[in-house]
């Protein structure tokens, strides 16, 4: 399970006295623990991936503000956090791969622009954790014309 890998990596980082890596992994592990406490169940890998995605999204947003403020220290911290978290995600799909999947779904389902919700419902499980979800809606609109 991904949860155990993250915990072992945090412990390894503590032993190596890598404070920056420990803080990033500790944040993710605390989110995992909060999920388990709130839901009173072991966390499935899909939800661990969602937590990591959420952390990456927040880091990217903070990185944008740091770049605007020209804060070199925050920029370095953000880039490091992205380097730490990204390897835990599944292999990412390319835009071409997702585009091909969307075209196949639209063709097989005979979907039109009115069926946007159905298309999204069909594609989301296929790309979960493997592609930036915010890019899918514009891609669908482009394909449908």
Report on this model:
With 145 residues, the chain is mostly helical. The protein folds into two domains: 87 residues, Uncharacterised protein YqeY/AIM41, N-terminal domain (Hypothetical Protein Yqey, Chain: A, domain1, Orthogonal Bundle); 50 residues, Orthogonal Bundle (Arc Repressor Mutant, subunit A), CATH 1.10.10.410. It is 76% helix and 0% strand. It has seven helices and no strands. Helix 1 runs antiparallel to helix 2, helix 2 crosses helix 4 and helix 5 crosses helix 6. The chain is globular. The termini are far apart. The mean pLDDT is 90.
Instruction: State the order of secondary-structure elements, H for helix, E for strand.
Output: HHHHHHH
Query: What is the name of the CATH class of the largest domain?
Result: Mainly Alpha
Query: What's the number of structural domains?
Result: 2
**Strand-residue fraction?**
under 5%
Largest sheet properties: none
Helical percent range? over 70%
Averaged pLDDT: 90
Number of strands: 0
**CATH-defined superfamily of the largest domain:** Uncharacterised protein YqeY/AIM41, N-terminal domain
Query: Would you tell me which CATH topology of the largest domain applies?
Result: Hypothetical Protein Yqey, Chain: A, domain1
Characterize the overall form. globular
How many whole angstroms does the radius of gyration measure? 18 Å
Number of helices: 7
Q: Would you identify the regions where 5 or more consecutive residues have pLDDT less than 50?
A: none
